[in-house]
Queue: 3 jobs
Job 1
Amino acid sequence: MRLPLRDYFRKKNTDKSTASDQLPRHIAIVMDGNGRWAKQRGLPRTAGHHAGMVALRRTIRYADELGIQVLTVYAFSTENWKRPRLEVDFLMRLPSEFLKTDLAELKEKNVRVTVIGDREGLPHHTRDSVHKAEQETAGNTGMVLNFALNYGSRAELLHAIRNIVEKVSSGSLDSGDIDETTISNHLFTASLPDPDLLIRPSGEYRLSNFLLWQLAYAELWFSDVYWPDFDKVHLLEAIEAYQRRDRRYGGIKL
Ligand code: FPP
């Protein structure tokens, strides 16, 4: 029987353990469309990113309420440095702005904050604020809120391959023992399950260098809605679409 997700939100007493049966364990989101959302309203792009932060806040609340185990959000890619300086500066201040207001709630909800990406390339203030959040939530056992910051999947794979080659050169790893798990274990996401569901709003149909290895068997869900307008109804639509998919992992159903 399919999970009556909408009922789950309506009825306070729905049994969460039943509801979680067919939920994606890990949802990854490309939070796209902030600039176009702002342009439509005659606002600066930064206003779109700010509205994107508000959409993220409510999405975290819904995902947590539903019992999603991991939520990975693409907050800044290795390619986003090409944007105008003012926009980059604004995007780099968003994590600290968000954590200043929301860290207490995340802690109260037992959420663990993690970060994937090249942190060495981040400004000190950004690095420090996410590091503080990671430290202060390290012992939490609830939903993992995973920020992809200065993240690029090809750079991540390159970094993993270099580490593996170093281990082979130093003799601590036998090249014959390298398998898919070896690769997964050398990615930034080593401790996380692969995403089951990728959500990309804003009418774009690409992966944009996001979790290329990890998304191998993910179900993809696209929508025309711009990220700042993304709401509970869209999250439910995406999850319900996911629940209708027949995941065969290359095999066949007998
Ligand atoms: C892509 O939309 C979005 C980004 C590069 C930034 C995403 C960041 C947020 C939603 C805020 C995240 C908040 C925290 C706390 C880190 P775009 O600017 O490319 O939109 P466009 O394609 O319409 O121009």
Job 2
Amino acid sequence: MRRPYIVGNWKMHGTADALTTLADIAACADSVAKQVDVGIAPPATLLHRAVSSVGGSALALGGQDCHSEQHGAFTGDMSAEMLRDAGAEFVIIGHSERRSGHRETNADVRAKAAAAMAVGLGCILCIGEPLDVREAGEAEDYLAGQLAASLPNSFTPDMLTIAYEPIWAIGTGHRAGRDDIVAVHRLIRTVLTGAGGDGAAQRVLYGGSVNASNAADLFAADEIDGALVGGASLKAESFNAIIRAAAP
Ligand code: PGA
């Protein structure tokens, strides 16, 4: 009964002229609204204009990160409450580019996820292993530990989505194999259930070099509830093809 969920992460891409792309994506989201949930996390500078331009559509808008506090002396940061105020419905937390580039720990991720959900923002919590861990055959232990330490104390299927994004697959053109993804998604559900949640009801997305040509293969597996898409979400043509591939 899990609804497919396709989310685009625009990272540090997009100025006002990207609003036309957003309008094209919103039209596609409207056309599959009965079957698929669709979201885009534009840069925060575009969020308010994005809400003005596609606000009434089925396309949800989100943030790419938030602080663990709702306000305070944190120059350059932005709180979950502020994202919500700007019209965001969800926020991506713990992306590997935040974990590595900004040294975010599992404890930081856990606190940010709790802060997001406290103000009613859906949270897309990312986990993923580096290549050396995968090659050493230690990916599952690593991921189980990372997820358990990043999870907030309480969570529900409507507020929390997990995105499995192997670091070596992000932006490289090397999508992980479907069987490996399915194995990790099963593990994620077990960890969620062990942490007091309902693993079978939680949505688990895959991210890492998903594109218009490889999305249908991914969504053929019941365990894979959708995708977190970087590069291929920047153009409406490729992102809309991924959205349509998720419509049963
Ligand atoms: P990619 O990025 O689709 O460009 O590999 C995925 C992500 O970072 O979420």
Job 3
Amino acid sequence: MIYVLGSINNDISLEIERMPKKGETLLADGCRMGLGGKGANQAVAIAKLASSSEKKKRSAVKMIGQVGKDAVGTELIDKLHDYGVDTEFVRRVNKSTGMAFITLTGKDNRIIVYSGANLGLSKTDVDEALMDAKPSDTLLCQLEVPLYIVAYALRKARAIGMTTILNPAPAKELAPDFYYNVDIIVPNETETQILTGINPRDWDSRKAAMNEFHARGVRYVVLTLGSDGAAISDGGKLVSHIPAIKTKVVDTTSAGDTFVGALALMYPHVGMYSFKEACIFATRAAALTVSERGAAESIPSFDKVCAFYNNEIK
Ligand code: ATP
Ligand code: RIB
């Protein structure tokens, strides 16, 4: 089982030709609303990518999060459930559901998040959700919910013996002991620079940044590099660059979330596959996400990834 602790947002995406200037009003070319939030997107990625041959027999993923008691909260829980995410540990609270305002200009997106209910998560929520967790389970976190809750959950998961994965997004300064409880860290370029002070612009700086994370106690480091793919390291033998798949870019929102979700799903099978193969699968899934609009809705199913890449990984 994979437990995802994180945000659930109502995403409002506006397609605009350019950003408005100060004091200017612009008309948008398109507007969409849908399920988003880094936590929810990653949970949906796991559910969609897990639901092929195993066909919704049992959910592979439990979401730990909060939404408001408003209509949109109900809608987002329903969507999570429809995608195959177990929502038993998604609580309803007396705050508005989180929202993300996204502007899409050409290939770029800019996001402002109103956290709302996402900030209400408590240690009790984590304790209840992880009550039956086993050492073979995984905890996946991002940083869109209170930092002390993420730190608490990682500590608890480590004590149980679970695998812990951190997507440190959006980047925030983290105390040194935060990293001790992380098995796999998956930052993008901006997050890497903020967390390590190293701009991962070339291979040497990427290696230096990955080594910095290893020095802090992380076993596997995966830097996602947008259209340049990913750099991966286990701090020993494995140091590799995985190129991105060339694709038509429509909307990159949730590319990172798809990558992280896919990796979380594949990691427990490392042994049957290599860690590098797990990351290649994640790169392929993420490339399909960028070729469609939306956050959760643009994430491909396992069948779609396999069909697209000729069944190379099953
Ligand atoms: P986002 O915030 O847009 O969801 P991110 O900044 O967290 O994404 P990125 O490093 O931009 O993460 O992208 C994650 C992965 O998605 C990359 O490692 C790559 O595999 C894939 N990807 C991103 N952009 C492209 C692209 N233009 N073409 C192909 N693959 C891409
Ligand atoms: O990573 C993409 C997500 O970031 C969006 O869905 C938005 O809700 C923000 O949390």
